[in-house]
Amino acid sequence: LAKTTQPISMDSYEGQEVNITCSHNNIATNDYITWYQQFPSQGPRFIIQGYKTKVTNEVASLFIPADRKSSTLSLPRVSLSDTAVYYCLVVEYNNNDMRFGAGTRLTVKP
Amino acid sequence: ETGVTQTPRHLVMGMTNKKSLKCEQHLGHNAMYWYKQSAKKPLELMFVYNFKEQTENNSVPSRFSPECPNSSHLFLHLHTLQPEDSALYLCASSQDDREDEQYFGPGTRLTVT
Question: DSSP class of residue A5?
Answer without folding.
Answer: B
